[in-house]
Structure formats: structure tokens, C-alpha cells
Write a structure and sequence with these properties.
The protein has about 120 residues and is an alpha+beta fold. It is built from 1 helix and 8 strands.
């Protein structure tokens, strides 16, 4: 009887872990650029920091907000009172009202200074 209870508990915990991992799917952390229906000028930067299902978002207009993964493929931004779907590869966000963000290209760091000889 005790073995069945332990196995059941392990199965339930395994389900929660698998659900958590698959719900996150992609890491949205990074700098984004607004490319359509922007609140600021087109190309304005936006930022997302993700910790599990929780996100901190700073919009292209500079407005900070809490956000979270509603379900895999969709986030909800509290201050904006709207959702957004993200592409499977995490490179594009399309908001309910039409605004589109794309990941900003990563700029490589400058080369180290040359040594004088």
C-alpha cells in the first residue's frame, strides 16, 4: 500500500515538473525592438526579464509592468491590460492591439584594445 502511495506522489510531481518546463517553452529575456504600431518611435527598445512564468516588461514607451506566461505561446502584460502571443522560437511578440516586437540583434562586444609593443 505504501509503495503505491509513493509511486502516485512521484507521478504527480513529475507531471508538475513537465508542465512547468513545457509551459515556459522559450526564454523571452532580452532587448526587443518595436517594429509595428509602436507606442514610441519605430525601432524603440523594449526589455523583458523572465524568471520562470513571471516577467518584468519595459515597453517601447518606457512603461514598466509585471507580466506572466498565460499559457504556452501567450503572455499577459498587467499595466497594458493586454496579451501577446510569442513565436515558437521566441523571436517575435504580437500584441492583441497589433503592436509587434522583434528581438533586437545582439551586438558583439568591442574587441579588446591592442597592446603597444
Amino acid at each position: 500500500m505504501a509503495i503505491k502511495a509513493v509511486l502516485s506522489a512521484v507521478a504527480v510531481l513529475g507531471t508538475f515538473v513537465a508542465t512547468d518546463a513545457s509551459a515556459q517553452g522559450v526564454n523571452l529575456t532580452g532587448q526587443w525592438q518595436c517594429v509595428a504600431l509602436c507606442l514610441g518611435p519605430p525601432g524603440s527598445p523594449a526589455f523583458i526579464t523572465q524568471n520562470g512564468w513571471q516577467l518584468n516588461v519595459v515597453s517601447d514607451a518606457g512603461v514598466p509592468s509585471r507580466a506572466w506566461v498565460d499559457y504556452p505561446g501567450r503572455i499577459w502584460i498587467e499595466t497594458a491590460n493586454q496579451g501577446a502571443i510569442y513565436s515558437p522560437d521566441g523571436s517575435t511578440l504580437q500584441f492583441d492591439r497589433g503592436t509587434i516586437w522583434q528581438r533586437a540583434p545582439e551586438v558583439p562586444p568591442p574587441p579588446p584594445p591592442r597592446r603597444r609593443q
